[in-house]
Design a protein that fits this description.
Layout: H1 2-9, H2 34-37, H3 39-42, H4 84-90, H5 101-111, H6 114-124, H7 128-138, H8 147-152, H9 172-177, H10 192-209, H11 214-223, H12 225-237, H13 252-269, E1 287-291, H14 298-305, H15 309-315, E2 331-335, H16 339-347, E3 356-361, H17 368-374, H18 379-386, E4 398-403, H19 415-425, E5 431-437, H20 444-450, H21 455-461, E6 475-481, H22 482-493, E7 495-501, H23 508-515, H24 519-526, E8 539-545
Antiparallel strand pairs: 1-2, 3-4, 5-6, 7-8
Helix pairs in contact: 5-13, 10-11, 11-12, 11-13, 14-15, 17-18, 20-21
C-alpha cells in the first residue's frame, strides 16, 4: 500500500506553510488551531540525512544555492514567448480538470477579485520569473510557482501569528533545517534565493516520499507530514481511499489549501473563462545577483545602483537592518537594467568604505550591549571591529563602530521601521497609545495582562507573533480605550518601586503576602526562581501598590 511505503521512509516531521495570511474564502473551521498545525515542526528531533545545507541535495541532485553573478542560479533555454503567464501555463503538470465544491468555492472567490490579482501580480513581478526558472530546472510542476500566492500573496515581508515569514512562509525551525540562517542582521526565510531553494527542495522531498503525489506533498507542506500520515492511516483502517481529496481528518485549513492552488491554476490557465485579466508579466529575469564580498550599507548600494532604497529592500527582504549582514550572504539582488551600473560603481569603492564608521570613547558604566543598542548594531560586531576578546570595556577606550550612513527614516523597510509603522497604524482614532519599554524579565503575557489587552492584540500591534521573544529595552506600542488608559494610569500612579532587604526567616511567600504581590512577580522582578532560597541581607526590588502595602 502507498501508506506503508511512505511511512517507512519519512523522517521526523517538518512543515513550512502558513495559510493565515492568504486572502480567500474560508469554510467553517474545526478545533484545530494554527499553532497546532505547526507542532510537528517544533517537535523535530533530527533531519533526514539528505537534508544538508551544502553539497549534494536529496537523491544525489546537486544542491545549488545560486550563482553570485548573472541572471540567477540556473541558465534556461531562450524563451519563445514574451509573456511569462504563457510560459507558466506550459509548465503546468497537475490535474487541472479536477473539479469539486471545495475547488469551486475558492475559484469563485478569486474570480470576483480582480484587484487581488492586480496587487499580487505587482509584488510577484520581481520574483516569479526566477521561481519559474527554478521549477523548470528541477522538472517540477509549474503550479508550485503559485504557492506563494496562497501562502503570502507574494509579500516578502509577510509574517504570520504562527511565526512564519517570507513568501514561502517558513517557521523558524524548518527554515534553519533547510539552511536559512536567522539572526539580528538577516533572516534567510525572507531571502528570495535561500527560501525558494529551501521550499522547492522540501516540496521535492515530500513528493518523492508520496510517490510523486504533489497534492499530498502540498498538504504536508501546510500541516506537517505527521498529520497527513495519520489521516491516511485512519482512511486505510476504514478501507477508504488515501488520496488527498478523501482525507476528511485533515484540518480545515489544509482541506482548503490545495483547492486554492488548483483554483488559481485553473484561472491562470484560462483567465478569459473566469473574467480575469492578468497583468502583463515580462518573461525576462527581473534581477541579477551581484557578489559584493563584504558588509554594505543598503543606502550606499541604492546610490550606486541609482535606485530607490525601497527597491533594494524588496529584492533583498532578508536583510533586517540598514546594512547587509557582516557574516553574509555577501550578495545583493538588483534589477537587471541596473546591474552593470551597480557593478561599476562597486568596483570603485573598497570594502572598508562600503559602510560608515564612527569613533566612540567608552564612558564609566558603558556596556557592549548598551553601546550596540545606541548605534543600532550588535555587541559581536563591535567586538570584531575592535578586536575585543571579552566583555570588559575600559573607561576612555576608543571604539570604531559601524553606523548607518543615513537617518533611520531613510531605511523605511528595515525590520525596525516596519514595526514602527505597524505600531503607529494599529489603533483606532478613539484609542490611546502607550509606549512601553520592555524591562528585564518581562514577557508579552505579563505586559498584556498588566494593560488589560490580549497577547494576540499586543503582538499584532507590534508586528510580532505571540511566541516571539522580547528583549529588555524593546519599545512596544499598546493601544487602549480612553477609559482603560485612564484606569491603567491611575493604577500605575499608585505603584512604587521598593527596595527590600531579606531578613532571617524570610521566604518569597512571606514577602509576597506582606506586600500583597505574587510570588511569581517577585521572582520575575529579581530574576530568581520561585524555588530559590533567600539569603539574609539579599536585596530585592518590589513593585507595590502603596494603598495595599505595610
Amino acid at each position: 500500500m502507498l501508506y506503508r511505503h511512505y511511512l517507512s521512509i519519512i523522517p521526523a516531521a517538518l512543515l513550512a506553510g502558513c495559510q493565515s495570511l492568504s486572502l480567500g474564502p474560508s469554510e467553517d473551521t474545526d478545533d484545530t488551531s494554527q499553532s497546532e498545525l505547526r507542532t510537528d515542526a517544533a517537535k523535530t528531533a533530527e533531519l533526514d540525512a539528505s537534508i544538508e545545507r551544502k553539497g549534494a541535495g536529496p537523491w544525489g541532485r546537486p544542491f545549488n544555492l545560486g550563482s553570485l553573478e548573472g541572471d540567477g542560479p540556473h541558465e534556461t533555454e531562450p524563451k519563445e514567448s514574451e509573456d511569462l503567464w504563457e510560459r507558466l501555463r506550459d509548465s503546468f503538470s497537475m490535474d487541472l480538470d479536477k473539479d469539486n465544491s471545495r475547488i469551486e468555492t475558492q475559484r469563485e472567490w478569486y474570480a470576483r477579485n480582480q484587484l487581488y490579482f492586480n496587487r499580487t501580480s505587482e509584488r510577484a513581478k520581481r520574483y516569479l520569473e526566477y521561481i519559474v526558472s527554478e521549477l523548470e530546472a528541477r522538472d517540477m510542476p509549474g503550479e508550485l510557482a503559485l504557492l506563494p500566492i496562497v501562502e503570502s500573496a507574494y509579500d516578502p515581508f509577510a509574517y504570520s501569528h504562527g511565526r512564519a515569514s517570507g513568501i514561502w512562509q517558513f517557521i523558524p525551525e524548518t527554515g534553519r533545517a533547510f539552511g536559512m540562517e536567522q539572526d539580528w542582521w538577516y533572516d534567510g526565510r525572507r531571502d528570495i534565493i535561500s527560501s525558494t531553494e529551501g521550499a522547492l527542495r522540501y516540496l521535492e522531498q515530500l513528493a518523492e516520499r508520496f510517490d510523486g503525489d504533489y497534492e499530498l506533498a502540498l498538504a504536508s507542506y501546510n500541516a506537517g507530514w505527521g498529520r497527513v500520515a495519520r489521516a491516511m492511516r485512519a482512511n486505510e483502517n476504514q478501507g477508504q481511499d488515501t488520496d488527498y481529496w478523501s482525507l476528511s481528518a485533515l484540518p480545515q485549513e489544509t482541506r482548503q489549501y490545495v483547492p486554492k492552488l488548483i483554483a488559481l491554476a485553473q484561472i491562470i490557465e484560462d483567465p478569459q473563462k473566469y473574467g480575469i485579466v492578468l497583468p502583463e508579466m515580462s518573461n525576462e529575469p527581473y534581477f541579477e545577483v551581484v557578489d559584493i564580498g563584504s558588509q554594505m550599507d543598503l543606502a550606499e548600494a541604492a546610490e550606486m545602483a541609482e535606485l530607490d532604497v525601497q527597491e533594494i529592500y524588496r529584492l533583498n527582504p532578508g536583510y533586517n537592518r540598514w546594512a547587509t549582514s557582516p557574516d553574509g550572504p555577501h550578495r545583493l539582488l538588483v534589477p537587471k537594467d541596473s546591474a552593470d551600473t551597480f557593478r561599476s560603481a562597486l568596483a570603485e569603492v573598497p570594502p572598508e568604505e562600503r559602510i560608515s564608521w564612527q569613533n566612540y570613547t567608552v564612558s564609566s558604566g558603558d556596556t557592549l550591549i548598551g553601546i550596540a543598542r545606541r548605534f543600532n548594531t550588535t555587541p559581536d560586531v563591535i567586538r570584531e571591529s575592535n578586536d575585543i576578546q571579552d566583555q570588559v570595556l575600559r573607561e576612555g577606550q576608543d571604539l570604531l563602530i559601524p553606523v548607518a550612513g543615513e537617518s533611520g527614516e531613510f531605511y523605511a523597510l528595515s525590520e525596525q521601521k516596519r514595526r514602527q509603522a505597524r505600531q503607529s497604524s494599529s489603533g483606532n482614532e478613539s484609542d490611546q497609545r502607550i509606549d512601553y519599554r520592555v524591562g528585564s524579565g518581562d514577557t508579552l503575557w505579563d505586559i498584556a495582562s498588566d494593560h488589560g489587552v490580549s497577547v494576540s492584540e499586543l503582538a499584532s500591534w507590534n508586528n510580532m507573533a505571540p511566541g516571539d521573544p522580547i528583549r529588555a529595552g524593546d519599545e512596544l506600542a499598546i493601544w487602549t480605550s480612553q477609559e482603560s488608559a485612564s484606569s491603567n494610569s491611575e493604577r500605575d500612579g499608585m505603584v512604587r518601586r521598593v527596595g527590600y532587604t531579606v531578613r532571617s526567616g524570610d521566604s518569597l511567600d512571606r514577602i509576597a503576602n506582606r506586600f500583597n504581590v505574587g510570588v511569581s512577580d517577585i521572582a520575575r522582578w529579581n530574576d530568581v526562581s520561585t524555588s530559590d532560597y533567600l539569603q539574609p541581607g539579599q536585596q530585592l526590588k518590589l513593585y507595590v501598590d502603596i494603598r495595599n502595602s505595610p
